[in-house]
């Protein structure tokens, strides 16, 4: 009996040892998402079934905080393996050495599965490339287009504007001839305050043919920069936007358009998905690619902003990290996110009937979406944003000429590179 007990005890130790060894071989990959909406619907259940040796743990750290929280945690070795950020911080993260160049793994991905890789838009890599290195995967990005009140333009006998100057003329017609003076209705809505990075303003600048220095600073004292400033001046001076719009956040702008109180608003596809729930698409409202600057059609650029998944330079498991990134970019997994939130940079997702049914307006934007170019990153992006937001606020007050304002703020921007 004693002998049987010892044998049983030995077997328990052996199996416990095996279990401990199996557990020790399991790799844990930590992921920080920037929004709850980016989390795959199955929360990695399928991934765990297909990769039993890799355990994914995830959290949601708001994009507004993820960059600084990541840097802080990286310094003490407590950062995640994958972090989702606003792409404008890439230059800073590379300069600080906090993210890993995964170029060799991307090349291996293409070699191992060229057919799947061919479905991915170049912007997936272009946006995360800095100094010839690739530091993450830009699964989702959002060029800013334009939503407008189709019924209001029809009432005024107007077609879609092709240039920004034509848009301004149409805004004046809407404000003077279509909208009621005391109805709290305005021809244009935009986030005029400093609540966010100046993505909306820079989308306008890039569509006007605006250019950037090699370091990523916008060249404001240019024809495109001056027209940009003049546009915001006109919105304020001529009463084409709500009097409080110069301090509006994005939610104020969206609420104005969806609530039937604005004629045009610059936005991305994820917001259009909500807009169609409030207004009748193709009857009350429609979408268009942003106009170009008159005489500069060839300089027009379809801007884009992204929320890439970056790889920490502290990770000890780059191969496993790549398996997680491939899973997040898998067409079957990313389709759900694309339908309800942000488009995925894959042709085999955006070209499906399933996606088009959820976003009927994408047909209008399809060609532009395939040609998107990123808003450049900069090592001092926070300071750059502050300067640009300050410039836009002053433009809406229109106390000096556009040329003077452009010169004044170009000097402030240039100081960031000194």
UniProtKB/TrEMBL annotation:
SUPFAM superfamilies: Periplasmic binding protein-like II. This is ABC-type glycerol-3-phosphate transport system, substrate-binding protein. The lineage of its organism: Bacteria, Bacillati, Bacillota, Clostridia, Halanaerobiales. Keywords: Coiled coil, Signal. Pfam families: SBP_bac_1. Transmembrane segments: none annotated. Residues 1-21 form the signal peptide. Residues 388-415 form a coiled coil.
């Amino acid at each position: 009996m004693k002998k049987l007990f010892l044998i049983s005890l030995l077997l328990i130790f052996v199996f416990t040892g095996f279990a401990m060894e199996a557990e020790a071989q399991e790799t844990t990959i930590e992921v920080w998402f920037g929004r709850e909406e980016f989390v795959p619907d199955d929360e990695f259940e399928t991934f765990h079934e297909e990769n039993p040796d890799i355990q994914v743990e995830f959290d949601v750290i708001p994009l507004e905080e993820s960059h600084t929280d990541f840097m802080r945690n990286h310094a003490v070795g407590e950062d995640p393996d994958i972090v989702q950020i606003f792409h404008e911080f890439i230059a800073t993260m590379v300069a600080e050495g906090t993210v890993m160049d995964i170029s060799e793994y991307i090349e291996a991905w293409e070699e191992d599965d060229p057919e799947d890789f061919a479905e991915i838009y170049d912007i997936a890599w272009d946006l995360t490339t800095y100094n010839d290195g690739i530091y993450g995967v830009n699964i989702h990005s959002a060029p800013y287009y334009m939503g407008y009140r189709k019924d209001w333009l029809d009432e005024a006998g107007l077609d879609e504007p092709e240039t920004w100057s034509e848009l301004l003329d149409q805004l004046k017609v809407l404000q003077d001839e279509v909208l009621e003076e005391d109805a709290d209705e305005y021809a244009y809505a935009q986030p005029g305050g400093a609540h966010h990075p100046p993505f909306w303003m820079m989308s306008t600048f890039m569509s006007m043919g605006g250019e950037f220095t090699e370091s990523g600073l916008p060249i404001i004292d240019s024809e495109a920069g001056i027209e940009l400033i003049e546009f915001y001046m006109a919105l304020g001076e001529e009463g084409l936007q709500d009097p409080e719009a110069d301090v509006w956040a994005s939610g104020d702008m969206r609420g104005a358009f969806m609530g039937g109180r604005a004629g045009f608003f610059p936005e991305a596809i994820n917001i259009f998905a909500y807009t169609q729930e409030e207004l009748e698409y193709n009857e009350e409202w429609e979408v268009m690619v942003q106009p170009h600057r008159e005489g500069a059609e060839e300089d027009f650029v379809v801007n884009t902003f992204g929320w890439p998944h970056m790889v920490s330079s502290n990770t000890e498991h780059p191969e496993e990290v790549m398996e997680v990134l491939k899973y997040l970019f898998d067409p079957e997994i990313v389709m759900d996110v694309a339908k309800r939130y942000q488009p995925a940079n894959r042709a085999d997702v955006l070209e499906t009937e399933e996606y088009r049914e959820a976003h009927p307006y994408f047909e209008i934007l399809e060609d532009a979406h395939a040609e998107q170019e990123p808003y450049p990153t900069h090592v001092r992006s926070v300071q750059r944003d502050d300067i640009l937001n300050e410039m836009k606020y002053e433009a809406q007050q229109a106390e000096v000429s556009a040329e003077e304002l452009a010169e004044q703020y170009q000097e402030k921007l240039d100081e960031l590179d000194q």
